[in-house]
């Protein structure tokens, strides 16, 4: 019979420290020279028994976490022959990837962020910061100080919001985490407090149709979410209630097109007159300040004035009023069976105006320039052409041409042998030897 002796913990350092890394399994071995009867070996951690046995060797395996760092663990040998148990205690020194967090302060002109790491060992390497959108889209990388601080000078204009988003710092102390990664990250979200911002998705030109309403769509970025948005004409607010909807829209932060949360304001604007097609100013204000955005409303149709009547032609379509001849050498066949047309009162004035140009017409050097001169003379003073002009054939020396060399002509009119002038009741007889005659207005390209 005899008590147990020579208890010890294998692989412990001389200073009774056992080193380990977070996430890497540690195996502790406690041995004793047993007596009779055999002693009981116990592993105890934080006052709790974590393993026991009656052999002369007792193993304890565990995966340490950072919470095990600087904790004591003890092996006991308990026997009835001992007044006090045999024991040895070791100190756990567990290295881990640092816990990383970001502390920040937003001032009037700067944003200061500190990357704070807590790990073992406490010698750190800090890397570039990354700026991302709220939707995790990369915006830029920024150099910080070797101590992990980042100072951003705020934009002093309407683009102050482009510093908003997620900021992420990266640090390492050479110890991998439980997933084996050496670099550890911390992140925080920065949101500016400023006036509402008109984002990149806003369109400065919006298209409408005369006589209908147009939906003017405005996209606002406002972290306060309390914008008051009005639309103005010539500095005066238009009493239109906007429809408001939360949306994901887009803006440009430091040259990068990203997704941002926003508010969509829709104004239904009636286009009741030509004056409705103009520039409007949208004003957006919150408790901090205001910003402004100009919208030009344009017609979807090309507006054309013809004999005092306003008509609309689609911008993307061009057509001739009478017809178009595209052949380079087009032969024009005349016909005498075209129905008679009455001449309106405005056309009578045009008839008189043409007579004043007849002598000039006969003196043109060539027939080609003669036609051009006649066509140009048939324009109103306001720059718009009449649909048709009436010419007295008795006073015009008609040059007989059967072929025209222009590529495109419009407003081609083949006149019959007799025309009746409205309100005069008299017929204009055409020389039978000449037959039907043709007047062409040359198109200005």
From TrEMBL:
Q: What Gene Ontology biological process does one annotation of this record name?
A: cell-cell adhesion
Q: Which GO terms describe its cellular component?
A: cell-cell junction; plasma membrane
Keywords, in A-Z order = Disulfide bond, Glycoprotein, Immunoglobulin domain, Membrane
Is Disulfide bond tagged as a keyword? Answer: yes
Residue span(s) of domain Ig-like? 4-194
Q: Which SUPFAM superfamilies match?
A: Immunoglobulin
Query: What subcellular locations does the record give?
Result: Membrane
Protein name per its UniProtKB record: Ig-like domain-containing protein
The organism named in the record is Mytilus edulis
